[in-house]
Amino acid sequence: MTAMELSYIAGLWDGEGCFTIGLSPKKNRRKSPYWFAVASICMTDKTAIKFIQQLFGGSIGCYTRKGVGKDVYEWKLWSRKASAFASRLLPFLKVKNRAARILISFQKYVDRLNTRYVGGKLLTVTDKRHREKFRQRIKLENRRGKV
User: Buried b vs exposed e over 106-133: b needs ≥16 C-beta within 10 Å?
Assistant: First the structure.
């Protein structure tokens, strides 16, 4: 992968992409809520989305937004793959640089504690609090509108 390809994707990402931390509540057999890193981008141009997928993998979904009339394509990566993607783009990002750093730090925190798959484990109160702090920090970073 060339620096030119990475800078192209970073430019798309600064305009249209999103780094976030998702939260899935506890349900069924899962004993604790589940926090996870997400990298996603939505565009009506399928060519750009397919280009990103060819380089990084991930999945593409398609839906139609009411009022727009065009199909919208969404590409996503989760957890370690999302963090690795953010790390590759980091030197080229301008607008989403801080969000990328938060996402990478979150994933390092999760990996360091070896709690990637927590379905059957009960997370400590402290661990839940730390994960939620990461989620709130990235949420604040992604806030739109007047600052």
Answer: bbebbeeeebeebeeeebeeebeebbee
Q: Per the domain annotation, does 147 fall within a domain?
A: no
CATH number reported for the structural domain that contains residue 107 in this entry: 3.10.28.10
Domain count, the chain: 1
pLDDT in tens, 4-42: 999 999 999 999 999 999 998 876 666 778 899 999 999
Structural domain for 38, as ranges: 3-141
User: What pLDDT was estimated at residue 121?
Assistant: 67
pLDDT digits (tens, 9 = 90+) for 109-134: 998 876 555 555 678 889 999 999 99
Distance in angstroms (rounded) separating the CA atoms of residues 101 and 19: 9
